[in-house]
Amino acid sequence: MDTATLHKPPALGRPPQLDVVEMTKRFGSFTALDHVSMTLRPGSLHALLGENGAGKSTLVKCVMGFYRPTSGQILIDQQLQIIHSPKDAHACGIGMVYQHFTSVPAMTVAENLVLSRYDDKTVINWKQELAELRAFMESAPFHVDLGTPVGQLATGQKQKLEILKQLYLKSRLLILDEPTSALTPGEADEVLGLLKEEVKQGHLSVLLITHKFREVQAFADEVTILQQGQLAGQGQVKDLTIEAMAEMMLGKERKPKSVMKTETSAQVPVLQVRDLHANRDNGLPAVKGVSLQVHAGEIVGIAGVSGNGQREFVESLSGQRLPTQAQLLVNGDAYTATRVEMMRHGVYALPEEPLRNACVPNMSVAENMALRTFDRPPQAKWNLFLVLKAIRSAAQQLVHAFSVKTPSVETPVSHLSGGNVQRTVLARELSSTDVRLLIAANPSFGLDFAAVDFIHDMIVDARNRGVAVLLVSEDLDELLTLADRIIVMSEGEFVYESTIADVDLTLIGQRMAGH
Question: Which domain CATH number covers 197?
Fold first, then answer.
């Protein structure tokens, strides 16, 4: 395979055909992609559909040269290609528009377009460049002002610029990774509609990575569906119903594993959320008037595709983001997520990316375990002076109880593995006897099986002790395993709710996909 040479870019009149043949990618003993084949025909819009972790990103990263496949082939116009980098992919006419913007905010649109080129010019003739850029913009499907700094563009304009960069580079096959995740529905339809026109005219082929069945039905010609790294189905979109696609994506026989849950008594509301609104960092609405109750001894699971407001929702409840509007009650009292209120009402959290959101990386394991208790006896004298011996002693007990693998309690927490960082946070958040409400966000993301089982056991144990648990996760299996009740969040709203006993997986798939 290594003797293959890079194919010349296709003629501008026709996009290339891309064939992925029996693609497999392993990371150690983990198989992220297992013998997947797919064909993107010239002049078509092909959707790549699947849950988080299904293998979509792994597949396109192999095509773009970020990963070297363990086995399998990439064919461009039926010719074998070895793609080691995005530059090699560009030489084959392939460009990728990433989920997160890659432009430089302080530079203008024109400067970002020139910066995106694969050339080695040391001197730029801006008079000539601007004339050529204006001519390019006149023929492009989108129009963005060349002189505007990118930081001043609206989100929709920034997304258009990301696509324009690839068109400017004369990419004929575009891979779009969740291109509408940061757009309003109107902006999403505009962008995909204009690209679809380019496809219809034979100027482009598009591989659209998405979770949204509505986008697949409205814009795609063909679809490939992945589930847990394997090919779950593919075909013409016109021949497939949403129910059939949802079943392929989620699987027919998906049943929750049993966990040892005790029967709960009368429903006592611990967390009450009424009409919560919150914005993204860019000021656009992220959470749009959601309401729920979580009772003592109950796990309520929030399902949804990443980027649908879950992060902002959790941050609003844990004091990391100010909601724009909300009435929050914990144990019947008004709650604004201050440290004092969280301590008084027994509110604890297992946030996503714990090393970034729940720990101070350069501080020791002992110091991180004491972040909740350092100002209280016996770890503080007169609530003022730290008692280091007591802090270390408490940490040693927690390390033993929660099986945290660390050279010592003095080791910086950043030196621990991901699973042991999460165990450290678990030890701090769940060791207290006054836990009434636990808010957990993707608590087992990226961890090995042993760490996942341990975390699941700790969450269920807390629930059995009468703790109210709000569990937000992109892993549907995790929610089906742990939750008593499940809610689906899509585009900032709660769009489905059911007890686990009555759950409808097909309907969950449709709601998660925004249909």
Answer: 3.40.50.300
Residue 257 forms part of a structural domain: no
Structure tokens at 363: 């501080």
Whether 224 and 356 map to the same domain: the answer is no
Report the alpha-carbon distance of residue 374 to residue 228 in Å, rounded.
43
CB count within 10 Å of CB 127 equals 8
Residue 451 has pLDDT above 80, yes or no: no
468 neighbors 296 (Cβ within 8 angstroms): yes
Q: Give the pLDDT confidence of 266-285 residue by residue, as tens digits.
A: 689 999 999 999 998 888 89
Answer with the one of 202, 218, 250 that is the final residue of a domain. Answer: 250
Interatomic CA distance for residues 61 and 54, integer angstroms: 13
Listed as own residue / partner, the contacts of 304-307 with beta carbons closer than 8 Å and 24 or more positions apart are 304/474, 304/488, 304/489, 304/490, 304/512, 305/51, 305/52, 305/211, 305/474, 305/490, 305/512, 305/513, 306/52, 306/181, 306/474, 307/178, 307/181, 307/182
Phi–psi pair at 110, nearest 5 degrees: -60, -45
Confidence of residue 244 (pLDDT cuts 50, 70, 90): confident
- Summarised one tens digit per residue, pLDDT across range 292-323 is 999 999 999 999 877 789 989 999 999 889 99
Q: Which residues contact 162 (CB under 8 A, 6 or more apart)?
A: 97, 98, 101, 102, 103, 179
Minimal CA–CA distance to 321: which of 348, 356, 353, 283?
A: 283
Confidence at residue 446, expressed as pLDDT on a 0 to 100 scale? 63
Q: Residue 13: what pLDDT?
A: 60
> Is residue 233 domain-shared with residue 191, that is, in the same domain?
yes
Element (H, E) at 335: none
- Give me the helices (H) in 201-297, please: 213-219, 242-250
pLDDT, position 252: 59
Q: Domain count of the chain?
A: 2
Could you give the residue ranges of the DSSP H alpha helices within 262-345? 310-317, 339-345
Would you say residue 402 lies in a domain? yes
Mean pLDDT of the chain: 87
Residue recorded with tokens 């975390």: 455
Residue 256 lies in a domain: no
Classify strands 45-49 and 71-76 as parallel, antiparallel or unpaired: unpaired
Q: Does 407 map to a domain?
A: yes
pTM value is 0.63
Residue keyed to tokens 């003993």:
29
Residue 365 contacts residue 409 (beta carbons within 8 Å): yes
Burial of 34 per CB tally in 10 Å (0-12, 13-18, 19+): middle
Question: What is the distance between the alpha carbons of residues 196 and 194, in angstroms, rounded to a whole number?
Answer: 5
Minimum mean pLDDT among 177-191, 392-406, 417-431, 475-489: which range?
177-191
462-473: pLDDT as tens digits: 999 999 999 999
**Structural domain harbouring 483:** 269-512
Tell whether 193 and 319 lie within a shared domain.
no
